[in-house]
Amino acid sequence: MRIPILKLYECLLVSIQWELDDQTALQFQEDLLHKIHETNARGVVIDITSIDFIDSFIAKVLGDVIEMSKLMGAKVVVTGIRPAVAITLIELGIRLEDVSTALDLEKGLEKLQQELGD
Amino acid sequence: MRIPILKLYECLLVSIQWELDDQTALQFQEDLLHKIHETNARGVVIDITSIDFIDSFIAKVLGDVIEMSKLMGAKVVVTGIRPAVAITLIELGIRLEDVSTALDLEKGLEKLQQELGD
Prior knowledge:
By secondary structure, chain A is of the alpha/beta class. In chain A, 47% of the residues lie in helices and 18% in strands. The first copy, chain A, contains 4 helices and 5 strands. In chain A, strand 3 (43-47), helix 2 (56-71) and strand 4 (75-79) form a beta-alpha-beta unit. The termini of chain A are far apart.
């Protein structure tokens, strides 16, 4: 299984709607970085509204892919972090530093467009 | 495997990036109709840029889901139909009547917004 990555103007949109297994998460990491390279995307919105629960491996992959995207020059906004996911991330020490967050995909895209407009 | 359906304002966006098997296609049909109901979406963009080849079953499911979405009040735009897919659809007699098409996701979304603005 692979997670589709949608290109919309200068941004990539990803909506993770089901719990990720380890293989899918790693595949997603690779796919996203390739897609950033291929499309010259300046921003990425990752929506995880549907994720109720996150384990330490997935949390690390998520943290890593955000750092990697930034290295490649793309701003990342993570949207729809649920309470349980927020708790897990902090408890695992994954700080998602300098990552913008927003309530939902629409607000995330608006935030990204504002930041890219600067 | 299920295909993520993204909600962006009044529209739903779907990007089918890998060949569908029959089960996934049927699941997608059901998921899309539920999502239209749940979100009151007025439009749907289905991007099939990555689909190189379509068989008769998938073509029928695609034709059906477009008709069903219209019955539920959502306009559908299909984007990124490749030559081989266009040939298959016409040869199978699936006309996708009254369905707007566009080159890519961005143009599809613009077309949908124009149509919804009427």
